[in-house]
Write a structure and sequence with these properties.
Blueprint lengths: L5 E4 L3 H12 L4 E4 L3 H10 L5 E4 L2 H6 L6 E4 L5 H10 L8 E4 L5 H13 L3 E8 L1 H7 L2 E5 L5 H11 L18 H30 L4 H11 L7 H11 L8 H4 L9 H12 L4 H13 L4 H7 L11 H33 L5 H7 L11 H10 L10 H24 L4 H14 L5 H12 L16 H6 L1
Parallel strand pairs: 1-2, 1-4, 2-3, 4-5, 5-6
Antiparallel strand pairs: 6-7
Helix pairs in contact: 1-6, 8-12, 8-13, 8-15, 9-10, 12-13, 13-19, 15-18, 15-19, 16-17
Bound molecules: NADP nicotinamide-adenine-dinucleotide phosphate (NAP).
NADP nicotinamide-adenine-dinucleotide phosphate (NAP) binds next to helix 1, helix 4 and helix 6.
Protein name: 6-phosphogluconate dehydrogenase, decarboxylating
EC number: 1.1.1.44
Function: Catalyzes the oxidative decarboxylation of 6-phosphogluconate to ribulose 5-phosphate and CO(2), with concomitant reduction of NADP to NADPH.
């Protein structure tokens, strides 16, 4: 009998915790995994009165009320296409497939059309918050057919994290791949946010001479103010964590960062869109270069500049202001990419709402996000977040600190590519001349690519060779 509200496919970390979250909110959940072991383990070890395990896909599908809602929490890529193809013959017109994995938005656009051709609705749903978020309330970014959103809305709004004002961190994002796109760029911002925090640690430790325990206290203090965020909070805990084997855990962790590639997707997509997200790209590159084969060798052969530690409160405050400014630039770049994508893919993204669903549940949740929502509510057509009065004031107030800490880091050889890119982005934006006139002249010289003039309308070519041959 079809009694179940939703089916979840994929009983690994995310799927099992989301199923429990749904069940806690009173929804009847059917669960299925393509190999039976995970389902068996889950229903045995974490039984719930609202959850029923299935080992046969047809029986799983038959258990669901119509229109059927089936959510995938499985590995992105081919497994998603394979599950869709297994379901198509046993689903009926109007049924809804929801892919909650970290799928590439281009794949989601293709699958949306593919399912539509088979009479099915397909949602690409960005989910952020990891295991705890899935269990207690994640940030949810659904993209798909607007007309059927009402069918899935009650479930996802119920299980989503709730922001300080009680509102669910779940909102309809846009058609086809919009939800996965917003999640992808969210991850790009997350890369930038984490890199800025990592560079802050380097500055305090190697330029400032602070111990891990002191840095923990500094981060705890910062987490009471405008920098309050999940990542600053957990970083404060990490700096204080002792290793049972002696010393501190952080100092025992190999200095080589991993990645699953969503930051890289964001950078590649920004290149395609022609949007400058240099800070986010710098964060991706920093993870790559942390794994560079020649690091040990370079350490031995490239001499380090001598420098003196700057152990004083003014330095710490300059770092704090720089971190805040870096965050502004990271979000300004991410939201510029949203703006461009919204036009390219005709998604009509609501930037204020996007910022509002990042306020809780997700990894980048921060006090700061309220200010982004307010900025877009005040001016939905905002060209760039840096022009919002609140952020502009911060940029102008904090830029001297950013310049100062970059100079200090450069002198003592502390690598801070994210901070440096934040400043380069702002300087390129505000400078009267960025040298593009010379680029155009060079292009016109060697390739007759033409140029525009500042004193006349039209397109021009100059006879450079004649001048050169003189
Ligand atoms: N972990 C996080 O913090 C997080 C946060 C947000 C989003 N996500 C995304 O959520 C999804 C699930 O993540 P996860 O960490 O729970 O699990 P995962 O390790 O990414 O994926 C494992 C799941 O995929 C299933 N699977 C593998 N190949 C399959 C196939 N050919 N057909 C059907 N199912 C297949 C596995 O089943 P078997 O075990 O039987 O092979 C298992 O249920 C992923 O797309 C992930 O990127 C993860």
């Amino acid at each position: 009998m079809a009694t179940q509200d939703i089916g979840v496919v994929g009983m690994a970390v995310m799927g099992s915790n989301l199923a429990l979250n749904m069940a806690d909110h009173g929804f009847k959940v059917s669960v299925y995994n393509y190999t039976p072991d995970l389902t068996e383990k889950f229903v045995k070890e974490r039984p719930h009165e609202n959850i029923t395990g299935y080992y046969d896909l047809k029986e799983f599908v038959s258990s669901l009320k119509r229109p059927r809602k089936i959510m995938f929490m499985i590995m992105a890529g081919k497994p998603v296409d394979s599950m869709i193809d297994q379901l198509i013959p046993i689903l009926e017109a109007g049924d809804i497939i929801i892919d909650g994995g970290n799928s590439y938005f281009g794949d989601t656009r293709r699958r949306y059309d593919y399912c539509k051709d088979h009479g099915l609705h397909f949602y690409g749903m960005g989910i952020s918050g990891g295991e705890t978020g899935a269990r207690r309330g994640p940030s949810i970014m659904p993209g798909g057919n607007a007309a059927t959103y009402a069918e899935i809305q009650p479930i996802y709004e119920a299980i989503a994290a709730k922001a300080g004002d009680g509102k669910p961190c779940c909102t309809y994002i846009g058609s086809d791949g919009a939800g996965h796109y917003v999640k992808m760029v969210h991850n790009g911002i997350e890369y930038a946010d984490m890199q800025l925090i990592a560079e802050t640690y380097l500055l305090l430790k190697y330029t400032g001479g602070y111990t891990n325990a002191e840095i923990s206290q500094i981060f705890h203090a910062w987490n009471q103010g405008e920098l309050r965020s999940y990542l600053i909070g957990i970083a404060a805990d990490i700096f204080a964590e002792d290793d049972p084997a002696g010393g501190q855990v952080l100092d025992k962790i190999a200095d080589a960062a991993g990645q699953k590639g969503t930051g890289r997707w964001t950078s590649i997509e920004a290149m395609r869109q022609g949007v400058d997200i240099s800070l986010i790209t710098a964060a991706c590159n920093a993870r790559v270069s942390s794994n560079a084969a020649g690091r040990k060798k370079a350490q031995a052969v490239i001499t380090a500049p001598a420098g003196q530690a700057l152990h004083n409160p003014e330095f710490v405050e300059a770092v704090r202001q720089s971190l805040y400014l870096g965050k502004i630039v990271a979000y300004a770049q991410g939201f510029s990419l949203y703006r461009s994508a919204s036009d390219t893919y005709d998604w009509h993204l609501d930037y204020g709402k996007i910022a509002s669903i990042f306020r809780a549940g997700c990894i980048i949740q921060a006090e700061f996000l309220n200010k982004i929502t307010e900025a877009y509510e005040a001016d939905p057509a905002l060209e760039n977040l840096i022009f919002a009065p609140f952020f502009l004031e911060k940029i102008n107030a904090n830029q001297a600190s950013l310049r100062r800490i970059i100079s200090l880091a450069v002198q003592v050889g502390t690598p801070i590519p994210a901070f440096s890119n934040a400043l380069a982005y702002l300087d390129a934006y505000r400078s009267e001349c960025v040298g593009a006139n010379l680029i155009q002249a060079l292009r016109d010289y060697f390739g007759a690519h033409t140029f525009k003039r500042v004193d006349e309308d039209g397109t021009f070519h100059h006879n450079w060779h004649e001048h050169y041959e003189k």
